[in-house]
Amino acid sequence: MLLDADQSQLVLIDYQPRLMPAIHEGEAILANARRLAQMARLADVPVFGTEQNPSRLGQMPAELRDPCRRVMAKMQFSAVAEGFSEWLRPPARPPQGNARSLPRHLQKPQAAEPERGSIVIAGCEAHVCVLQTALELLEDEFEVWVVTDACGSRTERNRDAAFDRLAGAGAELVTTEMVGFEWLRSAEHPAFKELQALIR
């Protein structure tokens, strides 16, 4: 099973300035988050973000915040507990017509916005906000892909325990490069050279 850019959404969780210095390998993790945001742009994948208690931990850096369609400020560790799943589902279409419109069986069906059910998720801390959000997205029947080299915790043990638990719950564990190459699929993709430049 490969990631499909047309079915994907990227979620960047809590890459905040007062948290990142404490994260094991934080600079490398932040660099991969930047790559993911750029890869999402190349592949036309929508990006969303979250910030845990931003009044205390600060906002994500602009290079991660700016590509986001929306950024949720949250106090719960799971963004889903604050309604994040609704952000990831296509909006419901308003009722069409009025009492004089054609009967339903004669109306043309409305084309619904396609659902992007593959959620590519990365962030900090892996064993808290990423874990809880990802587990609840799985419960909400999304496919969840966790980008391991763009996720971090203060300790390796906590990070690795989160990955074990997520894999056991049905999440796919991937890397930044896997995501980029699967979104593009081919060296003939118009953005392939830009992708290559990002990973060199």
Low-confidence stretches: none
Instruction: Report the mean per-residue pLDDT as an integer.
Output: 91
Number of helices: 8
Shape summary: globular
Biggest sheet features? 6 strands, parallel
SSE sequence, one letter per element: EHEHHEHEHEHEHH
The N- and C-terminal alpha carbons lie at a distance of 26 Å
- With strands numbered from the N-terminus, the spatial order across the biggest sheet is 3-2-1-4-5-6
Task: Please give the radius of gyration in angstroms.
Answer: 18 Å
DSSP strand count: 6
Proportion of β residues?
A: 15-25%
The percentage helix is 25-40%
User: Pairing-aware structural class of the strands and helices?
Assistant: alpha/beta
Characterise this structure.
The protein is of the alpha/beta class and 200 residues long. Helices cover 38% and strands 16% of the residues. It is built from eight helices and six strands, in the order E-H-E-H-H-E-H-E-H-E-H-E-H-H. A six-stranded parallel sheet has the order 3-2-1-4-5-6, with helices on both faces. Strand 4, helix 5 (126-139) and strand 5 (143-147) form a beta-alpha-beta unit. Helix 1 (26-42) runs parallel beside helix 7, helix 1 (26-42) packs antiparallel against helix 8 and helix 5 packs parallel to helix 6 (156-169). The longest helix has 17 residues, at 26-42.
What's the short story on this structure?
This protein is an alpha/beta fold and 200 residues long. It has helices spanning 26-42, 54-57, 62-65, 84-88, 126-139, 156-169, 176-184, 192-199, and strands at 8-13, 47-52, 70-74, 118-123, 143-147, 172-174.
